[in-house]
Write a structure and sequence with these properties.
Chain A has 277 residues and is mainly α. Helix content of chain A is 68%, strand content 0%. Chain B has one domain (2-280). Chain B is an all-alpha fold and 284 residues long.
Amino acid sequence: MMFIKLIRYDLRNGLLRCWKKFLISFCMFTVFCFDLYLNWVNCRLNPADLSLGDYTIFLFRGMREYIPDSSQPFIFPILWMLFYILIFYIVLYYPFQDLNGFGKNILVNSRKRSLWWLSKCVWIIFSVITYFALAWAAAIIFSLTTGTNLSLQINKLQLMMLGVRDVEMVLPIKNFVGLAIILPPLVAISMCLMQLTISLFVKPLYSFLFSISVLLISAYYKSELLLGNYAMLIRLDIWSENGLKSINGIYFSIILGLVSIVIGCIYFCRTDIMNKE
Amino acid sequence: MRNTLKIELKKAIHNKYFLITFAIAIFIALWSSVHTFQYMNRIQQYLLLIGNNKNPNHSADSLYNNWMGGQFGSFPTDLYYFILPLIAAFPYGWSYFQERKNGYSKNVICRCGRKNYVLSKYICTFIIGGITVLLPLIMNYIIVACFVPARMPDPCCNIHYAVFGDCMWSNLFYTNPLLYDVCYMILTFVFGGLWATISMMASYFLKNKFAVLLVPYILLIIFHYGIHSLFEWRIYLEASPINYVRGVMVDNISKEWLVFLELFILFIFGFGISCYRGIKDDVY
């Protein structure tokens, strides 16, 4: 019962009261969709041919594998990075604000530190789900406004523009939809939980720095051990035979998320929390 | 003013944020040097392998395109420049906000006056922000110079240097590359300093330390996105500081007037708002 009360408290204070951050994110998602629309107009293509699936792949595509070369600079996938940087920032402050404020009383009343910690983890999961729901909502509203269809079928031209060479070998649509809905939020949840846990050990600003570095290194190196790779739909095995196995991404995210929760819980229960920034 | 500045500098250098951030920046600079060392080793092995029969293309690799500011295609370098605004702001960009919040500023202002306090804080934030990004670059330059020859850049190999005819200070690069690198180091110092003062300026508008340091950075990333994705069909000049503080053309061509205009705007916002609000606003 106490746990449910804690979750309600966190959702009210960390989610509902932070509506401005989510509103700004929603506006950014709309701009991202407009970006794709503009790309098509500039290529003299008909934007009416776009679909919801195109907007989805545009948001979560990431970048193709970068092969380091002394004559080829690395251009980071700014849209993809911005998308994740925003959620890292949104979930960074609240736990520490709470711990230094009214949350201390809640912590004492709950009588168990682990409940407080788990409640913050649940709050992160809800925040990330809300964030991604807003991204989908922005894509749907933009599609409706511009008269594009709500199908999740991806346009072949769009695939070719993203660099998918063998367009015909793309897997059935439901596989793509399943992955687009599940994998990016799962990776984001797990990275946000990792950020929360790391911020117990070092200052939260440095855990944010670490999260950004993980994103950048994932964009730079295609590796199964770098979680960010699984958040880039274009690097998955749905497009090419040598792509990363999506199922591994799901397992990896779940394991990392659980490990972060457990380590954070153990550490939080034993550490001195007074005046922890 | 002099005493206040001295105290501010002492405080800035002896705080954990400065030491940790500086250590991170130095670590990345060392990592980049190791990366360059490994790359040069591979090149040497390759040259031994091909013998004297083929053109070794010596001018493709020089100190001037292997130090951090002139390099691309190396992860540590890309990471350094991507987080450079954070490296500049973390050491001391938060201090003005913190001192206003905990009441320390009231005590200092009583003793030395508002103008002195705000000006000293601005100068100190600028210097510490600039130094934190500059020193790792100098260190990397010196280390790389120890094992990569400073061959004069050959314009025929410009693809390896990514400094083309239209680029900012390109004439200087092919005539006096050392001066070119020094100019870019100064540019990085100035940008780092000004960016740290933007966090100081943000103290007047934002309510927590995290926001003071991170919101300007997120706005910069949004600006970068606007230039490089949203309006990439309209803007062909490098307007993003993340790219133009590097001595290479990463995406678009940088121009002196645009760089100086942006730095001037940063100065006007940072200095103007910090001083105006700092001197006018009531401390209580």
